[in-house]
Design goal:
alpha+beta, about 100 residues, two-stranded parallel ribbon
Amino acid sequence: MRNECGFRFFDLMFWQPGSVHADYYEDWCVAPINVGALWVRARVDLVRKFKHSGTVADLGCGMGETAVALRDAGFSVVAVEESEKAINFLKAQYPKVQ
């Protein structure tokens, strides 16, 4: 059986979303996140197919639903997000996610 980490590479030099200079969470009102949502659980299950413990990076973590669910599942999580509002929310509400 072959073990693969599932790493994927995207060359962002040639791709930029239309919101590249905007904070797409600017109008978001602070509200509890749903770490039990089916789509979040599916992401955790996908990570568990490749890895049962250790550190996981959640790139483009948004408000942090997946990062928090992975932390709750026993992973050490590094969350990366370009929205300052989203990261400030995550740091304040879930300081164990880096």
